[in-house]
Amino acid sequence: MPLRATLALPALALALAAAAPPPGGTLADVDPFIGTGGQGHTFPGAVVPFGMVQLSPDTDTACVIRACYDHAAGYRHDDPTIQGFSHTHFSGAGHSDLGDILVMPVSGEAVLLEPGDAARPGSGYRSRFSHDEETASPGYYAVTLADARVRAEMTAGTRIGVHRYRFRPSDAAHLVLDLRSSLYDYPGKILWSSLRLHPDGTITGMRETRGWAPARKLFFAMRFSAPLTGHAFVSTEEDVPYKGFQGPGRGSDAVAERAGRALVARLDFGRLDRPLEVRVAISSVDAAGALANLAAEPGDFDAVRARAQEAWSRELGRIEIDAPTPMRRMLATALYHSLIAPSIAGDSDGRFRGPDDQVHQADGFTFRSTFSLWDTFRAEHPLLTLIQPERVNSDIVRSLVASQEASPHSILPVWQFQGRETWTMIGYHAVPVIADAYLKGIRGFDAAAALDAMVKSARYAPYGGLGDYMARGYVAIDREPEAASKTVEYAYDDWTIARMARALSRGDLAAEFDKRAGYWRNTFDTRTGFVRARKADGTFRAPFDPTAINYGSDYTEGNAWQYSWFVPHDQAGLFRLMGGDRAVIARLDRMFEFDTSKLDYSHAEDIAGLIGQYIHGNEPSHHVAYLYNYAGAPWRTQERLRQIVESQYKPTPDGLSGNDDLGQMSAWLLFTGLGFYPVAPGSLEYVIGRPFVHRAALTLPNGKRFTIVADGLDDSRPYVGAVTLNGRPLARSFLRHKEIMAGGELRFRMQAAPNRRWATGPSARPYSASSPPR
Amino acid sequence: MPLRATLALPALALALAAAAPPPGGTLADVDPFIGTGGQGHTFPGAVVPFGMVQLSPDTDTACVIRACYDHAAGYRHDDPTIQGFSHTHFSGAGHSDLGDILVMPVSGEAVLLEPGDAARPGSGYRSRFSHDEETASPGYYAVTLADARVRAEMTAGTRIGVHRYRFRPSDAAHLVLDLRSSLYDYPGKILWSSLRLHPDGTITGMRETRGWAPARKLFFAMRFSAPLTGHAFVSTEEDVPYKGFQGPGRGSDAVAERAGRALVARLDFGRLDRPLEVRVAISSVDAAGALANLAAEPGDFDAVRARAQEAWSRELGRIEIDAPTPMRRMLATALYHSLIAPSIAGDSDGRFRGPDDQVHQADGFTFRSTFSLWDTFRAEHPLLTLIQPERVNSDIVRSLVASQEASPHSILPVWQFQGRETWTMIGYHAVPVIADAYLKGIRGFDAAAALDAMVKSARYAPYGGLGDYMARGYVAIDREPEAASKTVEYAYDDWTIARMARALSRGDLAAEFDKRAGYWRNTFDTRTGFVRARKADGTFRAPFDPTAINYGSDYTEGNAWQYSWFVPHDQAGLFRLMGGDRAVIARLDRMFEFDTSKLDYSHAEDIAGLIGQYIHGNEPSHHVAYLYNYAGAPWRTQERLRQIVESQYKPTPDGLSGNDDLGQMSAWLLFTGLGFYPVAPGSLEYVIGRPFVHRAALTLPNGKRFTIVADGLDDSRPYVGAVTLNGRPLARSFLRHKEIMAGGELRFRMQAAPNRRWATGPSARPYSASSPPR
């Protein structure tokens, strides 16, 4: 059945008409609200590129763990009230935490210290708002709080957030500072917190939480543009078996400090004839770190906002995009979302808190964290190697290695934020991040130490069934959950170790890990043609349902349909096991056209964006549309990409079909929009799909420019007719990293009909480890 | 009625017979078990002078808060079992905490991870023991653990403790490391804890507790002389609403780290043919601090023990004591107990955790804490100025001022340990400690900064009714509890500020605080002749019962009988209000002879050691016996001292009549034994009582020697007949600090009958602020 028949264009189809780039460039096209509805889990608030502070409104935190999924980023576009503005948020995470140090303005005499019920205005300090009076752009967010009678504006620096509140001059102005509020809350999450008012009016404090990361400490320092006229530090903790002795001050008012597990502060400023500005810095290290971070970024709201805009203008300007308006907005926003994590997590003086909960010193680099590596090794990190300075990429590697050195397990981060490990998802995907960076020529880190960290991580038997993996060649499902996914992901990670080891002339390690790179075969069932979980006795676990998706099952957030394609480094080897090109193409088609109407995946988070068994809302599918290229059918990849882009992305709050996952969903769109995608980081190749831009220009870290042009791009010409690189025909369906880095022009000729002859032969196909070396 | 009639000598009366000093000097006379029974609250374990580690057996921690009073120091001499050996203990505290990082050896195959029931041997890891197989000396403790089949020995360095366990060679050797065990426990006390096994076999960890001091963090590092053959890190926490994601390792065995609120570890060593030594260091800063502290004090058990003994020999050798055996033992032990606190609390690299819970750097001094100031300003600190190097005393001042600088309230410590404030007891008695040190010529600190810290503390309105005190001249009982005690104690503290201000040529401050020094008059009721609590309206609170002792009442751990004598700096002024010498003497006699048989003070902690309304077990009475001197009747003081010493001290575990209070009870005995006592620190005078030694020699910080000789001392000659200083008659009943510091000999001629003429005239009496200056 011709694929075209399935391409029912949605109402909001991309109008692929020629259009000039708008004034203001890429920055003006960013819409921070994209992804704040649906399950995109992005936030609309203020952040600078890779900023430690994400100052953003929380519309609701009154939920417990999984019930908070809708509010993973604090803000949900369809909520009617804002509870306050807190300083830390993940961009697009599936699981969540953060929402630290919530501040909310309150006008008038009565100040309620509970957020109240969104359905009952006036029942607490939360306030209704309207999207008509809300605006957001990179580094800036503003909203009018109806019940609070306050115009609120937010901006951010690297380690600071700045609030500006315009109260009515006739209103007594207050702030509520609520240390109880948190994303993904549950009883007992807050282990300890404290507040301290300094004689100069500065407030410092801290909170230690047992959330996604256990025993995470966050300190802050807060200064106000107007003097405090009064304050109350209130503990609402109930049933404290032992309260100790009473410190200075009676009751909650006028005390200089308070500590406990449920603190909220009322801060009074009297009547103000000018806006109240609040400068806040955070630190994972200590209060002195927060104070130093605050001092390191001086200036008032407007000055900080100007710097934030300048930073975004510079970073977003690294890609010029000429595309139809919806696509231009989506790509600009994707670029914006890809520049939020990994976030800076170290202080301005270089100190940072590591996975051992101890404070370390970063010498010569900036410690970065928020590593959602299972997601971001795929396209987010490869994107950063193209559009961020070598310094940023080497910082990332040094931060990963510094974390390994401080790890109680001596292994690299798995899913880390603010230096703290959460043990979420599988694999040791810091490994491909480091290998890919090194192989691309990124230096500025100790490569031998990095390789050592990679090897230690890959050999750590207690982690995720690695003991069995090393002994048997696969993770045994009767001893370790998600064994099938783990085996294939480990094999890919191992291949990147081998690549880097060889580059460092460590033939011994290269041999060891090249061997392990083939272990994916040990979990492939040639009878069914699927990657399947094996038991320690060597048999595949039965019964087997290739459509089942369950936590703790044979696969990780997926099933056999998605995971059977995960051999990024040796698709040719996989395809041989699957019966060759024709069988593979048929099977890929079967995947995209699978009838899932009778399946229910609603119990599984992040299983969204279904096109048959292709699930774009989650990462295991992300490379799959590009696999037709490996089977000699690039035109089929081109069709699938159009199908995915048109159905999975919209320039609207609900415009992401799944969690943005710290930039991975966005990086996928950005690469795909430019016309190529890094299917196998570490291979130094990008698989060519089809562009969705008329023209785009990348300013590379080395200062050169690489331009993509799509001649004739419009809705009626979705196929690649021919490709030239610097004017010379490109007869292969992949691009080499060095070709991009050399600068130049990649030009596509788009056409209405598929070109079934372009780049179909064996030598035109992208890298596969078991194919003859090119 | 002649006083003598009341002096019924107890069975264990002091045999005041001449005896030669024993071999081994003062050290050999120390008995660390004195005070471990009754309510002395001392511990028998290993500590070096002012050591950060107090490694001592805990016989029971299964109690909650006030029920733990008997076990304030962990060990109770009449308990049948030992639960384990923990690394931190107060010496003689009334309230309590600590008992950190409990280690217990276990032999054999079955290792129970709960302490079990003392009444049911074998029900847990605790073990029976016998005092016959137990020994303790300064820096060393040993016991045979019957159920564990282990000989256990403990020694200590400054920041380390070293354990030595002799298992039977045929037994599998284990240790239980229980981070759940704590003194003064209660549900929820442990906020967080963690354990980490390093590849080299070192274990580090931490515990954060919400005990007497809120959010106190203690880190440790632990190394073993034999390799670990296995381990389990177990969390026994129940009802954890959210556990996060699983880290490497399944279950509790072989994991490299574990964190939570209820951790216990089983450590396996297999069969050992030599003793197992365990070196442990602690730090309030971080794990790196603990590791550095461990490295800073190298050596095995015997080496560390030898250093500890050497240190004690040096410090205890500063006073040579020739006295009858029981008194010699009591005085030697009192000296030992007076050299435990203030404990070192900063790391070997100078870092320390301050009252703001932040880490600070001590530049050029060693940070010390464990300041039980309401107790110790009286005699403990004055003792240290006589027998410790200037460096130790200036360290104390610098630590107090550093704490003030880091205090969220900008005030000096009240009751602080490990840098953390507990807000226990009343007053700002760091002030007399600093003033007394400065006026005695101790330098090495910034005197202006110290004075500033003193003034800030005395002017901090939110603390303990100081706002009212400054505005009205007294603390108002209807707005602040214990107002009578606070008013008189503040007035004394203020007088010491005035003294120091004058010495620093700050006449403005001297005038301000001289005025405040007279505020004690505002709370003295001339009608009843008692210090009484006044209300804000100026009236004394009624009804008034001078014998009532209650928490939160008009007085602090005492009543009008004790507190009406608290004007250390102006007893003459007080005596005039009381009606003159004769009335005062009668009233003192009435106090000592008060019939308390119908009163019940059992509800009040630390109200013990009653001689009428003189309550030697608690501090407000401590100076009272010396007050006869101020009324011209030194011979009556001499009688009372004998009465007190004979009834309140014994060289036995139950030999202290009340909590030793971090050395104050001991310092009282030591001064009294030498024949003089610092009634008013800051006055530079010691009030002469009567000696209980044949001879004693102090090696002073300046290297000079001051000798006390009591000619003719025995039971039949309890009175001072005459006194000479360096051979010249001393006709006054006080001694000047500079006279001691000049070195020389103070010689008493003891006699059977009182000398009612010696030092009775006005000019022979000790300092009183309102008397003409001498």
Quick summary:
Chains A, B: InterPro entries: 6-hairpin_glycosidase_sf (IPR008928), GH-type_carb-bd (IPR014718), GH92_a_mannosidase_put (IPR005887), GH92_N (IPR041371), Glyco_hydro_92 (IPR012939), PNGase (IPR050883). Two copies of one chain form a homodimer. With 774 residues, the first copy, chain A, is α+β, with helices and mostly antiparallel strands.
How would you characterize this protein structure?
The structure is a homodimer of 774-residue chains. Chain A is of the alpha+beta class. Chain A has a domain at 31-235 and 252-312: Beta-galactosidase, Chain A, domain 5 (Distorted Sandwich), CATH 2.70.98. Chain A is globular. In chain A, the strands form 10 sheets. Chain A has a 10-stranded antiparallel sheet with strand order 2-5-6-7-8-16-12-11-10-14. In chain A, strands 17-31-32-36-33-34 form a 6-stranded mixed sheet. The first copy, chain A, is built from 18 helices and 36 strands. Chain A is 24% helix and 22% strand. The two termini of chain A are 35 Å apart. In chain A, helix 8 packs parallel to helix 11. In chain A, a hairpin with a 2-residue loop joins strand 23 and strand 24 (420-421). At the A-B interface, strand 10 and strand 14 of A face strand 10 and strand 14 of B.
